[in-house]
């Protein structure tokens, strides 16, 4: 049952689908070659081991776990220009795109567990191919991940993912044969960044050049997270309500809380802000696919650091699929009679 209600003093109307039932399709993507650190390929299994599927089911979701994708070794995977491991990154993302497309067309909301953030290329690509119109992207991250192959200071593709996907940037992207299957599928106006605080000068230029909507940590501090989310939805819904692809890098959250990640940056989101983002997006009824990336259990120095990172990743995901901190109950619950 879809209940329409006016949900904002800014004047947009949220369509709040009273769904106690999300159908989640978990896709494990144990891939680490979009960056140099080992361990991030263990992300999918450590997040599963924290009880993700059971917790989703306990809050009324149905869950299909597609398991972990197998990624091929690519021998002689030499850089193309500055871009490192283009063969491995290209083929892993092509495989992931197909898996996300399949999960989506089978009626699930794909939940991609990374792995590093280069996987957003395949995840967003597969999602876009499975829906009739355009999608919008909410990118929650300390970093913009929008360097082109020509501006990247490191060559690591996890810092370039968005550049391959944005239509308006394609004249600046050189040919990389291993990426020739990628079709840019997102418009700059359909992207919102939240949580930025470590942006390269070239990336800052690209964001301005394309007019991309950014709520950096400065805006989170100045406006508060509730206003940021309200403005995010006003902006994305101003013309047509498109399905939302949420790409959530765990390093958006402050590294005091989520230290087990490859590129931590001080001054991040609190636990409450990090979860509020997902609660708000869930309430729109438009969440169509989710990535949770960059959980790296080898980057924690203690077991407690790893546990904290993984537990928060799970809470972020539960928020995406209906958990409310006010509490939940099944729609058909009846109080026991004495
Ligand atoms: Mn990222």
TrEMBL record:
Enzyme Commission number, as recorded: 3.5.3.1
Query: Cofactors per UniProt?
Result: Mn(2+)
Cofactor annotation comment: Binds 2 manganese ions per subunit.
Question: Which superkingdom heads the taxonomic lineage of this protein's source?
Answer: Eukaryota
Q: Which family does it belong to?
A: Belongs to the arginase family.
Q: Which reaction does it catalyse?
A: L-arginine + H2O = urea + L-ornithine
Source organism per entry reads Gadus morhua (Atlantic cod)
Q: Which Gene3D superfamilies match?
A: Ureohydrolase domain (3.40.800.10)
Q: Which Pfam families match?
A: Arginase (PF00491)
- Residues reported in the UniProt entry to bind Mn(2+): 117, 141, 143, 145, 249, 251
Return the CDD domains for the record. Answer: Arginase (cd09989)
Q: Which InterPro entries match?
A: Arginase, Ureohydrolase, Ureohydrolase_dom_sf, Ureohydrolase_Mn_BS
A GO term, aspect molecular function: arginase activity
> A GO BP term, please?
L-arginine catabolic process to proline via ornithine
Pathway given for this chain reads: Nitrogen metabolism; urea cycle; L-ornithine and urea from L-arginine: step 1/1
Can you name this protein? Arginase
Q: What class of enzyme is it?
A: hydrolase
- Any idea which UniProt keywords this protein has? Arginine metabolism, Hydrolase, Manganese, Metal-binding, Urea cycle
Q: Name one GO cellular component term.
A: cytosol
């Amino acid at each position: 049952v879809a209940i329409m209600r006016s949900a904002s003093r800014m004047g947009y109307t949220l369509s709040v689908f009273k769904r106690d039932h999300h159908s989640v399709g978990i896709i494990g993507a144990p891939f680490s070659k979009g960056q140099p650190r080992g361990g991030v390929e263990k992300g999918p299994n450590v997040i599963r081991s924290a009880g993700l599927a059971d917790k989703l089911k306990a809050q009324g979701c149905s869950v299909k776990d597609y398991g972990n994708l197998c990624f091929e070794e690519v021998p002689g995977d030499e850089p193309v220009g500055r871009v490192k491991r283009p063969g491995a990154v290209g083929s892993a993302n092509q495989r992931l795109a197909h898996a996300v497309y399949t999960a989506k067309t089978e009626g699930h909301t794909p939940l991609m567990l990374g792995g590093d953030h280069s996987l957003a290329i395949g995840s967003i690509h597969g999602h876009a191919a499975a829906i009739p119109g355009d999608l919008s992207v909410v990118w929650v991250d300390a970093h913009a991940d929008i360097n082109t192959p020509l501006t990247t200071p490191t060559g690591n593709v996890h810092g370039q993912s968005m550049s391959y996907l944005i239509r308006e940037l394609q004249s600046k992207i050189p040919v990389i044969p291993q990426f020739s299957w990628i079709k840019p599928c997102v418009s700059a106006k359909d992207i919102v960044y939240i949580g930025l605080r470590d942006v390269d000068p070239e990336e800052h230029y690209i964001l301005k050049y394309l007019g991309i909507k950014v709520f950096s940590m400065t805006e989170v501090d100045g406006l508060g997270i509730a206003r940021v989310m309200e403005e995010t939805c006003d902006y994305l819904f101003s013309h047509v309500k498109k399905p939302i692809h949420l790409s959530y890098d765990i390093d958006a959250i402050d590294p005091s809380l989520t230290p087990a990640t490859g590129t931590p940056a001080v001054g991040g989101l609190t636990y409450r802000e990090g979860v509020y983002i997902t609660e708000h997006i869930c309430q729109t009824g438009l969440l169509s696919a989710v990535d949770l990336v960059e959980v790296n259990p080898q980057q924690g120095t203690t077991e407690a650091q790893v546990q904290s990172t993984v537990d928060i990743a799970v809470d972020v995901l539960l928020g995406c699929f209906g958990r409310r901190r006010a509490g939940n109950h099944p729609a058909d619950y009846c109080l026991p009679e004495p």
